[in-house]
Amino acid sequence: MHESQSSTDWRPTAEIDTLKRRAAIIRRLREWFYQQNILEVETPQLSQGATTDPNIESFEVAHRHLRTSAEFHLKRLLAAGSPDVYELGKVFRLDESGRYHNPEFTMLEWYRVGIDHHRLIGEVESLLRYLHQDDSVSVGCISYRDFWLQHTGINLADTSCAQIASYLESNSVEVPASSRDRIDELQDLAMATVLAASMPDARYTCLYDYPASQASLARIDETDPDWPVANRFEIYFGSVELANGFYELTDGAEQLSRFRADNEVRRSNKQVARPVDQRFVQSLNYGLPDCAGVAVGIDRLMMILLDDIRSLHEVVSFNWERA
Amino acid sequence: MATYSTNEFKGGLKIMQDGDPCSIVENEFVKPGKGQAFSRVKIRNLKTGRVVEKTFKSGESVEAADVMDTNMQYLYTDGEFWHFMDPNSFEQMGASETAVGDARQWLKEQDTVEVTLWNGVPLSVTPPNFVELKIAQTDPGLKGDTAQGGTKPATMETGAVIKVPLFVEEGEVIKIDTRSGEYAGRVKE
Fold it and tell me: What residues of A are in contact with residue B61 (Cβ under 8 Å)?
């Protein structure tokens, strides 16, 4: 009855029955992509370039980097004239471990030529309906700025670090000294704590049009000069982030300068600078068609689709500690 | 100076905060989609016992606290200090009233307890979950009382006062759960 921790340590962290149900969902997922006529591809996991994003750390293996996303290779395929593509595979992020995180996890990414992020949000919704086998499933959309206004009363186009910090403290979230004068970090902390918790339970919520400073690989829309936005979206289920998508930046020079700026931030944070994926930049210079792409955390999706799951470890065969 | 990075945070890790040794009770890794990751931790101040919530940026380091749990034998008290001995080195040390805290009522000479040392000085004392103590004084139970029913106060040899069933008598040795301070059964000699 009472086996010690060490004697059961060899066992999978998922129930075998959960793995069977997971496999059935993956099969259904591939079926949906087949119906949409989106090509399944496999791209390299070990790359010479790496993400420069200061908030994502790559594993280094023999002078190469394990991918943190399939994005660069998938866009290179589109630039080379490939039809719409998707990839279902493992990605790796150092030090991300917790109830909803495992450093090695399964990501689904797909790219659609000729559509923007709003139409892609609609596609994610169709996929979710197909997987839930329920047409009443819907994704409630609100802009990042309106979401903040609604829940905090803060107008992001006209705010200060002090205002966000005091909002956090009034909601009993202690603010680290090193984040006090960094507006993006303060927003991230609020999003990961108070704001995530205020999202409607057990429903999909989509935030779109992020602050331009959080554009990453999305294009920036400067229609409103007081509030330029990144054409980026995130989809949450309850308070858990499930997907991140962009109306993709296609300007190679702009992308390269963002990578360099990232590396500047990394140096000032005493993080190692990462090698810019020059081939990816070249593909943008050659010409990436107008497209939108999204990445979905498949293990988290399993947590949503399967009942009675409390931790991500219960939907992966062996978690980080037992691998 | 030893330090821990946030990715080493886990329950039980001993760190310094605002000059006091603390123990991590719970660590939650939070990260909005693509943004900055944070560790939200519940930390118990080992001096005051108070639990506070703190936020650390992922990758930040904190000073490690030189805190060690050791098993020591309780010897005696001189009223000001409670004296303990390391059974291996026979080294003795005195713990202050603050360090001993509520554990004092469960301390019986010769018993082994957990003494937490900070920089080599006793910081706190944790009694075993169960201790066996002799009843120094309790009123006689009434005839006809059965195992079920009421309780009466009893004073232990250490001075602790706990509720015992009516059938338990003075001079008997009983088992007590120190976490709740409740009677847990008679000890058959």
Answer: none
Contacts of A193 in chain B (CB under 8 A): 30, 40
pLDDT tens digits for range A99-120: 899 999 999 999 999 999 999 9
Cα R_g (chain B), whole angstroms:
21
How many residues in chain B? Answer: 189
Tokens encoding A118? 């709003």
Nearest CA in chain B to A297: B33
* Residue B55 with chain A: CB contacts under 8 Å: 173-176, 189
Residue for token pair 């990445």: A295
CA distance A240 to B128: 41
Model confidence over B33-68: pLDDT tens digits?
788 999 999 999 988 889 999 999 998 999 999 998
DSSP chain B: --EEEGGG--TT-EEEETTEEEEEEEEEEE--TTS--EEEEEEEETTT--EEEEEEETT-EEEBP-EEEEEEEEEEE-SS-EEEE-TTT--EEEE-HHHHGGGGGG--TT-EEEEEEETTEEEEEE--SEEEEEEEEEPPPPTT--SSS-EEEEEETTS-EEEEETT--TT-EEEEETTTTEEEEE---
Which of B31, B34, B60 has its CB closest to that of A216? B34
Which residue is closest to B38 within chain A, CA to CA?
A189
Quote the ipTM score. 0.81
The pLDDT assigned to A187 comes to: 96
- CATH tag, A137-250: 3.30.930.10
Is the CB of A271 less than 8 angstroms away from the CB of B59? yes
- Cβ contacts of A179 on chain B, cutoff 8 Å: 36, 57
Residues in A closer than 8 angstroms to B60, CB to CB, are: 176, 178
Instruction: Please enumerate in sequence order all residues whose Cβ is within 8 A of that of A261, keeping only pairs 6 or more positions apart, or say none.
Output: none
CA-based nearest distance B42→chain A, Å: 11
- Which residues partner with A252 through β-bridges? none
The pLDDT tens digits for A126-180 are 999 999 999 999 999 999 999 999 999 999 999 999 999 999 999 999 999 999 9
Name the minimum distance, in Å, from the CA of B165 to any CA of chain A. 32
Tokens of A54: 């200061």
Structure token pair of residue B27: 């660590």
Distance from CA of B114 to the nearest CA of A (A): 23
Domain A1-114+252-287+289-323 CATH assignment equals 3.30.930.10: yes
Q: Are strands A229-237 and A204-211 parallel, antiparallel or unpaired?
A: antiparallel
Backbone angles phi, psi at B38, to 5 degrees: -135, 155
- Report residue A5: phi and psi, to 5°: -50, -45
| Residue range(s) in chain A whose domain bears CATH number 3.30.930.10 | 1-114+252-287+289-323, 137-250
